[in-house]
Amino acid sequence: MKTFFLSSRAGLALALCLGSSLGEAQASWFRTSEQEARDFFAAGKYAEAANTFEDHYRRGVAQYRNGDYQSAAQSFSQVKREDVRLDALYNLGNARFRLGSYENAVEAYESVLKEDPFAEDARHNLALARMMLAKVEEEQRRKE
């Protein structure tokens, strides 16, 4: 059995002769799943991006944008990458807030502020979460 090797020019010419679908398929061989996920995200296909991202932080952002706050909270809580760890903790608070888990949101925002006392967004969201928590507690007292 003979094996034929094509030069890159010959491979490109063959791909062009066979049509663009082969050229696109060949181009996708060189793309990572993270690159594909970024393309999904940029196109607003957040569910596809979330299913493709391997990085917990990026997956969490896509899940959050898709409205899947429970999965986003899980992803953000698994972030170990130091350069985004504090952002993940802040976003964990946001996901918990969206879930109506105000006590847990307060905990996340307070953790952010312990590490960065000047995080104004976390301070603002902490005040909102505390206000919502107080409202929920007041409603529960009225029902009792």
Give a structural overview.
- The structure is a single chain.
- By secondary structure, the chain is an all-alpha fold.
- Helices cover 75% and strands 0% of the residues.
- The chain is built from nine helices and no strands.
- The protein is elongated and about 60 Å long.
- It starts with 7 loop residues before the first helix and ends with a helix.
Would you identify the regions where 5 or more consecutive residues have pLDDT less than 50? 1-26
- Portion of residues in helices? over 70%
Q: Could you report the average pLDDT, rounded to the nearest whole number?
A: 85
Total beta-strand segments: 0
Largest sheet: none
Q: Rounded to an integer, what's the Rg over CA atoms?
A: 23 Å
Measured between the Cα atoms of the first and last residue, the distance is: 84 Å
The secondary-structure element order is HHHHHHHHH
- In what range is the share of β-strand residues? under 5%
Overall geometry comes to elongated
Number of helices: 9
By secondary-structure content and strand pairing, the structural class works out as mainly alpha
